[in-house]
């Protein structure tokens, strides 16, 4: 550990202890903050996915029972607008936390790859190996959980659109009145144009496809580090 030259010999041990305590405290606070952000996003994403699923099932049931009238369509329109608004509100509330959380995850993967491909014996000690394994396992678990619930919201949004297409196909066959047709068309346009996704800072969409992107970056980074280390 680097100790500044102005620290006298008698104070070096105290200085070293203070630095170690600060490092541990900072790491602990970081883990705690990331954990709270993860739990918050997990619960919110799970709730929004369930709400989207309930709406998709209600459309499917109405399509099956053929319960179509202006009042029902207006109710569907109001419910979907509220659902889309809540999803957008949720994403705006937590997408900054998600961005920082993914930054921490990627940093953990970079650390893991760096230690795995390096030939430095200082990193081959049992404590370092256990630490890196724990970081990798935690980051992988969080990434899979976030990707699952993010993809679930996208899938439920696509399911709503599929149900709406089926709904519209049956709706027009019964020659509904003009008022009902206009209201239904408005609902159809809103649902088909809705983008039901959650993001990280509004920069990238949270889904399973993101895992492939991160994995490709990690493989490329590992190959580069391995080649540079051999030189």
Protein topology:
Elements: H1 12-65, H2 70-117, H3 126-173, H4 178-193, E1 199-200, E2 204-205, H5 209-230
Antiparallel strand pairs: 1-2
Structure description:
- The chain is mostly helical.
- 81% of the residues lie in helices and 2% in strands.
- The chain contains 5 helices and 2 strands; from the N terminus they run ααααββα.
- The chain has helices at 12-65, 70-117, 126-173, 178-193, 209-230; strands spanning 199-200, 204-205.
- Strand 1 and strand 2 form a beta hairpin.
- Helix 2 (70-117) packs antiparallel against helix 3 (126-173) and helix 3 (126-173) runs antiparallel to helix 4.
- The relative contact order is 0.13.
Question: What percent strand?
Answer: under 5%
Largest sheet: 2 strands, antiparallel
List how many beta strands DSSP finds. Answer: 2
Helix content: over 70%
Q: Give the N-terminus to C-terminus distance in angstroms.
A: 27 Å
Name the overall outline: elongated
Q: Look at the structure and give the mean pLDDT.
A: 81
Q: Which sequence of strands runs across the widest sheet?
A: 1-2
Individual helix count: 5
Q: Which class best fits the helix and strand makeup? A: mainly alpha
Low-pLDDT stretches are none
The whole-angstrom Rg is: 26 Å
Attribute tags:
231 residues; mainly alpha; two-stranded antiparallel ribbon; 81% helix; Gustatory receptor; receptor; signaling receptor activity
Could you write a compact summary of the structure shown?
The chain is mostly helical.
